[in-house]
Amino acid sequence: MRFNSLLISSFLLVSVGLTDCRRTDPRSRSYSGVERLTNVRSRNSSNWAGAELGIDNGAFFSVIGTFTIPEISGPISSDVNVWVGIDGDGAGGTCGDRVLQAGVTIYGDPANGHFDSYAWFWWFPANAVQFEISNFSVGDVIGLVVGAPVNSTYGLAMIENRTKKQAAIANLSSTYALCGQTAEWIVEASLEDDEPLANFSPVTFTDVRAYTHDGHTYGPQDATILNILNGSEVLTSVSVSEDSVKIEHV
Ligand SMILES: *[C@@H]1O[C@H](CO)[C@@H](O)[C@H](O)[C@H]1NC(C)=O
Ligand SMILES: *[C@@H]1O[C@H](CO)[C@@H](O)[C@H](O)[C@H]1NC(C)=O
Ligand SMILES: *[C@@H]1O[C@H](CO)[C@@H](O)[C@H](O)[C@H]1NC(C)=O
Ligand SMILES: *[C@@H]1O[C@H](CO)[C@@H](O)[C@H](O)[C@H]1NC(C)=O
Ligand SMILES: *[C@@H]1O[C@H](CO)[C@@H](O)[C@H](O)[C@H]1NC(C)=O
Ligand SMILES: *[C@@H]1O[C@H](CO)[C@@H](O)[C@H](O)[C@H]1NC(C)=O
Fold first, then answer.
1. Distance from the CA of 48 to the CA of which of 31, 175, 182, 225 falls in 20 to 30 A?
2. Rounded to the nearest 10 degrees, how much is the dihedral formed by the CA atoms of 6, 164, 166, 22?
């Protein structure tokens, strides 16, 4: 697999965390939009901002992206999740409820008054699992990979601290086979207790790619754009280029 040799060979592998995430379901999602993916180029969501590729014949097997840990400010009880995934859009696809995703949660800790972070991977509906790499600093450059290159029930998730040239990788399996219908690069807000969306400095995914079993490589340019909507107020702004997705809090 191209992404394997490219990424894994150049980074030291460290151990894989096995603790369940302590935080709320990073995937909890409730869309305000109800449209199907087909021909939809832009959509409002209550908690997702970013880009999503959808293809009819469902062949994505791997998604990659790199981003820099943003600065977060605002309510200390809020959190922001930055992740890449496959099949996250059960609401828009026809695959049903499943997702393979990996990312970083940056959360405010009211007890000590600052934002901490941890990295996780998740093949829903199994529990999310924490990577051992955690407690990122603003400015750390993070690479994310999820994929099921062998078959649709057997995959991997990887996070790299590119600044430190350190990575953690997990082998995964699930009885919920991936369909490969959607590929996502997302900033997700938890929005619990009607908290306002935390202010985050712009998150730019770079090296954005989705790979299909039939040998195609897609960038985000034909992706559906998702923005977070609160009442009548759009809280984010998203732009894409050939290989990047930029998500801003407005
Ligand atoms: C999102 O919501 C805003 C505010 O209501 C609206 O102007 C915009 O058209 C909506 N976007 C989409 C794609 O529905
Ligand atoms: C994360 O790092 C900060 C700054 O070094 C430290 O104050 C905090 O206790 C660390 N948190 C965890 C969970 O290790
Ligand atoms: C990532 O690498 C940078 C540079 O070496 C380091 O300062 C930072 O602590 C690392 N972050 C984690 C979570 O390991
Ligand atoms: C997927 O691949 C793994 C590893 O080779 C194997 O153990 C598993 O049985 C395969 N599953 C299917 C459905 O082929
Ligand atoms: C993941 O599986 C591959 C292939 O079986 C193996 O070479 C590798 O050591 C495994 N990695 C981990 C972290 O378990
Ligand atoms: C949405 O607006 C309401 C009313 O202004 C506010 O209380 C709430 O915190 C806002 N939510 C977000 C996610 O900004």
1. 175
2. -120
Considering 35, 71, 188, 192, which one is annotated as catalytic?
188
**Which pair of structure tokens corresponds to residue 206?**
């770079």
Please give the number of the atom of ligand 5 that sits closest to the Cα of 156: 1
Q: What spacing in Å lies between the alpha carbon of 104 and ligand 3's midpoint?
A: 14
3 membership: H or E segment, kind and range: helix 2-8
Computed over its alpha carbons, how large is the radius of gyration of the chain? 16
The pLDDT value given to residue 89: 77
- Taking the C-alpha atoms of residue 136 and residue 107, their distance in angstroms, rounded to an integer, is 11
Instruction: Write down the pLDDT at residue 93.
Output: 54
When pLDDT is cut at 50, 70 and 90, the band that residue 90 belongs to is low
| Ligand 1 atom closest to Cα of residue 44 | 1
Of all residues in the chain, the percent with pLDDT exceeding 70 is 81
**What is the DSSP secondary structure assignment for residue 20, as one 8-state letter?**
B
Ligand 1 atom closest to residue 42's alpha carbon, by position in its atom list:
13
Clarify whether 184 is annotated catalytic. no
Ligand 5 atom 14: residue of nearest CA: 171
**Is the shortest distance between the CB of 80 and ligand 6 below 6 Å?**
no
Question: CA-CA distance, 247 to 153, in Å (whole number)?
Answer: 31
